[in-house]
Amino acid sequence: MSGRFRNIAIALAAACLGAIGSAANAITVPELQRLLQTSARQSVPFEEKRESPWLEAPMTSRGTMHSTPQSLEKRVESPRQETWRLLPDRIEWIGSGGAGRKQILFSQAPAVAPLADVMRRVAAGDVAALERDFRIELHGDERAWRARLQPRGPDVGRYIESVELQGTVNRLQVIIVAERQGERTTIRLLP
Asked: pTM of the prediction?
């Protein structure tokens, strides 16, 4: 092998290894949080599919999510109009046109609290706060990533089996919540 050809081969190999190395930089929790918070949209259309052993068929709903650091509001447009507000201490439900109002205090229904907390924090891009209650396993890089959250302790693990987040760059696209009773909710956040 001539010296010139060998130098070109070494340069190409180094370039390929450099490209592979940079593509293999796994995303970290602080990087994911930075991405999600720098692009946080306060309002996003969604489609939600709820599967349950107690339902004959999956239920699909559509609407818009509105997020702030302290709350998540889901305005459902179909199959019926209703609004769900997930707050730090309760969930509020408002029926179509304001007809009918209910609230569930987490102190009276502790099973609902972990799920509401996960949804609020995910929508706000507060991934680091979730590390208190979940082990977070990240796959991919900044271009395409997936985060799998496994409950750390029995308080959360009693109700939630796992949470999966999927996205590209700074856009959360899918939230999948698997509950212990066999229920599964898949939320697709639309562009």
From this structure: 0.82
CB 29 within 8 A of CB 132: no
Domain boundaries, the chain: 3-189
CA–CA dist 126, 42 (Å, integer): 14
Contact in structure between 176 and 164 (CB atoms under 8 Å): yes
Q: What CA–CA distance (Å, rounded) separates 160 from 116?
A: 11
Identity (one letter) of the amino acid at 91? Answer: I
Cα–Cα distance for residue pair 154/44, rounded to 1 Å? 32
**DSSP calls for 81-99:** -EEEEE-SSEEEEEEGGG-
Non-local (6+) Cβ contacts of 165 within 8 A are: 122, 146, 147, 149, 172, 174, 175, 176
Upstream peptide bond of 79 is cis (omega within 30 degrees of 0): yes
Backbone angles phi, psi at 9, to 5 degrees: -60, -45
Question: Is domain 3-189 in CATH 2.50.20.10, yes or no?
Answer: yes
pLDDT tens-digit profile, the chain (191 residues): 554 444 443 444 444 444 444 445 889 999 988 888 887 667 999 999 999 999 999 999 999 999 887 899 999 999 999 999 999 999 999 998 878 899 999 999 888 888 898 888 888 888 888 998 899 999 999 899 999 999 998 888 888 999 999 999 889 999 999 999 999 999 999 98
